[in-house]
Structures are given as structure tokens and as C-alpha cells.
Amino acid sequence: MEKIKTVKLTAGDRTFYIFINVFLGVIGLAILIPLWSTITLSFRPNTFMGNNLEGMFLAPWKWSTSAYKALLGNAGFIMAFWNSLKIFLFGVFTALFLTVPLSYCMSVKDLPGRKLLNYFILIPYLFNIGMIPTYLVVNNLGLTNHIAAVFIPGAIGTYNCLIMRGFFEGIPDSLMESARIDGAAEWYILLSIILPLSKPIILTIALYYGVGFWNDFMHPLLYLNESSLQPLPILLRNILMASGMNEFVEVNAFGEAPVAAIKAASVFMSAIPMVIAYPFIQKYFTKGTMLGSVKG
Question: Is the pTM of this model over 0.85?
């Protein structure tokens, strides 16, 4: 039986790997320490009198769930969470509904005017028209105080289109050509051939859009003036502003929970949907991004 040859590491290789491990360890601590601090702060009782370092090592049996009870029992937080969820779902669906066919058109090599279409998509990406013209367009379309104003302006991301176009260009042309010879229409090719092969890139782009819509702050601030339409980022901003004036959040708003615990619990709960969704998409994330960046 042939012996497996092992590669001996030189002193330089060992030094390099040690440096990489230490560097990644430092990056991991830089992520985990603030995360753990936020989690423990959200469970900190109102009677706690220590500093933040002592709070990070507070025994779990001394934790309090008053901040989470106050948030979940508050109609404003539930409404803001529901608004964010609607923006997320409608936004991702609309963005994919527009991005997928546009990217497919950009990837068809014999499409008349293909080069002009690519320039038409790329120029706005390089030269942004600014906030005021965008606001005037949204306002004239009558989208103010409607959740569509949050996701319609960003429904087509040029960067996402270019990544998806690169993925579509990597699909063998023989698959499409054989379907065209059999008389298949372009929409049938897209739905029956392209989309089943494009699950990694579709989920990757959906993640990009979803994170952007879920964390969007500026568009709701500009276009949603009614409090019943405001999503979580606006509510978190209001909590932060209120905490600058009061030591405790008002009783009729969130109960007697400490402001710091309310803020930490709000941040943690607003991140839960993305944390839950990412593990299911992560296996497609790297594959979709790498394959989409091969061409284009």
C-alpha cells in the first residue's frame, strides 16, 4: 500500500498559521464580546448596581426578562416588528421579481441592444441622482405614507444585477439553444431551465436584499410619517432619543424596565430574524457569490 506523503511545514509556514489563528481569534473576540455584552445587558435587572463588566458575568439565575416582557407587551413594538416584516417580505419578492428577468436579459449574448442596456443599468450605479430628486419622484407617485415607498426605490440593485448576470452567463449556452430549437419561448427558458439551476444566486441575492430592507432606516424616515407605519429601525431610534431624556422609559410605553435593557433587548430581537435565516442560506451564500463573480 502506497504511503501518503505528508508536506512538512517550514518555520515560516508555522509562523504564518500562528499569526492567522491569533488574528482570527482577535476578530472573533471583537465580535463575541459586544454580542455577549448586549445579551447580558438585555437581561439585566432593574436592581443591578454594578458596572458593565460585572453585568457581563452576572449569574443567569439573577437575570430578569422584564425588558422582553415590556417589549412584547407593547403594541408599538409589535406593530413596528410587523411593519418591518411586511417591508422585508414584499421588498424581497418585488426585488427578485424585477432583478431576475432583468439580469437574464443582460446575460443573453444575442439580445439586440444588450450593450446599451448594460450601460443604462451601470450609469445610475456610478452617478447617483441624490436624495431630493428621488424624494420628489416618490412623492409625485403618491407613495408617501405607504410601505411601498421603502422598497420600490431600491427594488433593483445594480450590484445585485451584475452578480446575477455573471451567474447566468456561466450557465452553458447549449441548454438554452436546445430549448430554443425545440420552440421554447424565453420566459419558458427562464422559468424551466435558468431558475432551477440558479438557486444559490437567487438565495444569495435575496439575502442581500433582505438585510438591506430589514435594516433600512433612511427610507422609512423620509417617506413614512405615520407612526402606525414605522418599522423597527425608527422605533429603535425613538427609544434611543427617549433614553437621552429619561432614566426609565415611560410606564405607559414600556413599563418600569431600565432603558439600557430596553435598548439591548430591542437590538437583539430586531436581529433575530436575520440570525435565524442566515444558517439556512449560508451554504448557498459563498457558492452563489463566487459563481456570480466569474464573468461580467
Answer: no
